[in-house]
Amino acid sequence: MEFFKAPTLFLVIVTLTICSSTSAMNSMYPSHGPNKGAYWPSWAINFPPSAIDTSLFTHIYYAFLSPSNITFKFEIDYPTALLLKNFTNTLREKVPPVKRMFSIGGASDGPKVFSRMAISYDTRKSFIMSTIEVARKFDFDGIDLDWEFPQTPIDMVNFGHLIHEWRVAVKEEAKLTCRPQLLLSAATYYKPEVSLDDVYRKYPVKSINKNLDWINAMCYDYHGSWDLTATGAQAALYDPNSNVTTSYGLQSWIKAKLNKEKLVMGLPLYGRTWQLKDPSLYGIGAPAVDVGPGIEGQMPYVDIEKFNSQNNALVVFDSLTVSTYSVSGSSWIGYDDVRSIKLKVEYARDLKIGGYFFWAVNGDQDWKISRQAYETWTI
Ligand SMILES: *[C@@H]1O[C@H](CO)[C@@H](O)[C@H](O)[C@H]1NC(C)=O
Ligand SMILES: *[C@@H]1O[C@H](CO)[C@@H](O)[C@H](O)[C@H]1NC(C)=O
Ligand SMILES: *[C@@H]1O[C@H](CO)[C@@H](O)[C@H](O)[C@H]1NC(C)=O
Questions:
Q1: Is 188 a domain residue?
Q2: What is the pLDDT of residues 248-285, one digit of tens each?
Q3: pTM over 0.85
Q4: Which of 52, 234, 249, 354 is close enough to 272 for a disulfide, judged by CB 3.0 to 4.6 Å?
Q5: Ligand 2: which residue has its CA nearest to atom 8?
Q6: CA dist list (Å): 256 to 212, 261, 262, 296
Q7: Structural domain range at position 106
Q8: Total structural domains in the chain?
Q9: Catalytic pick from 2, 75, 93, 148?
């Protein structure tokens, strides 16, 4: 928390005279154009930050950092510090520039640490101050919280407190240091109401509108290895038989009165795979017995394209769900290709939401999908 130490008084005086004229300091996102994001997994060793084509994105997220589960502060070791510096330095030098975000948590972190952090003012404050320190030290433009997911109604209330106090803190810090306010975003469930594990809870939409610049709604993982009995479209835009869809999720956020421009639609750059029970029954919802090729039933788009051509797979576009699947023998892969991505981005654009993001940037093949999305929703 260096900015609260000795130079504070000096900074306050300078702030009053210089910062007061910079209106940029107070401008909340969005200032212009759609949000076109992508997460960069820091474990993608064959895909360094330098490989990212920044002309296709507006925001790139470093995934992930985790706070200590005791102090709720970030204890960044030397190799991670090097990686963070490399990420921000590399992206700063790129033309055109992109906003550099760091993302906290992720699916593998689990929800418990955030639940414990968010429970009291003091633990929230430790966490918040540490996020700001990391952002400034490593030259990030903003911070993204991937708490997957708040588990109880109390967690949701505390999530609301957290983002309120976070906003107060980044405003204060911007004033003190005369710098643009750090951006604040969060990755959320695909819809505002969550009933996983039979516990109903709802995101604090009012607090989100007031305190976050945007949310990344994770519009994928609707079907996967947790249900091996049937194939599924893991990121279906529509589904005649269910509400577990991207259209339902986005519409639900809007119905819950989230400011539309703060809603960002998730798009997967990976597919999910099953082993068919009977290769002659291969539609969406066909009986399955196990996961298919890939790692634990998942495969990046770039590998799917390879698999399809090496195995001479049958590729089918399904207009009911707006998704694509490929079949080779008993191997079945459901995914998004340029066609489904185009239709989904058109859907999001016509809804006038804030934009879209990809998980994850290293899954594309020769930027085919990212470019299709970018060009479909031109500024
Ligand atoms: C904190 O993390 C450590 C290391 O991952 C783990 O062994 C420990 O059980 C965790 N403590 C709590 C309270 O979750
Ligand atoms: C980032 O790391 C790569 C690979 O280790 C290196 O080639 C590159 O010069 C580094 N870039 C910056 C800006 O630190
Ligand atoms: C989908 O949601 C709507 C409105 O929330 C509800 O009326 C309908 O029964 C749901 N459909 C399914 C298949 O669950």
A1: yes
A2: 999 999 999 999 999 999 999 999 999 999 999 999 99
A3: yes
A4: 234
A5: 86
A6: 16, 14, 13, 35
A7: 32-268+337-376
A8: 1
A9: 148
